[in-house]
Amino acid sequence: MKQDNLEPTYPEKSFSEVNSLLKSIPILEFDNRAALKAGDIQAELMNIGRPVNLLDALIAGVVITNNEVFLTRNIDHFGRIKGLKCISWNPGDYGR
Predict the structure, then answer these.
(1) pLDDT tens digits, one per residue of 34-69
(2) What is the distance between the alpha carbons of residues 62 and 59, in angstroms, rounded to a whole number?
(3) Percentage helix, strand, coil, to 5, in the chain?
(4) Which CATH number goes with the domain that contains 63?
């Protein structure tokens, strides 16, 4: 029978596993460079009549200024941001 209860059976173990995972992942900072880049992104897209949500511009600013790649399920949306390297998260799109 399928278990629909999503609560962990052992919350302490789950909490510990999540903390371990988070400690192993580098966290990118939102700094002045990222903020300025986000402003440039938003201004450029607004000037061509294709703005993105402000949070999307902020995320893109962080990714671009850290020279990272952005993993997304919405390649078409984020792909219009110049300088943002994207990889698709959709099944069958790997490497797009």
Answers:
(1) 999 999 999 999 999 999 999 999 999 999 999 999
(2) 5
(3) 50, 10, 45
(4) 3.40.50.1010
